[in-house]
Amino acid sequence: MNKKHIIIAALSLLVFMHPVGINSQEDSLIDDCLSSIESPFVAGDSSSKALLVGEEVAEFRTTLFDGNTYRLVMCSHLPGLIEFSLYDTNRNLLFSNRDFGNTCSWDFKMEGSMECIIEARLNNEIAESGMAIMLLGFKVR
Question: How far apart are CA 77 and CA 104, in angstroms?
Answer without folding.
Answer: 12
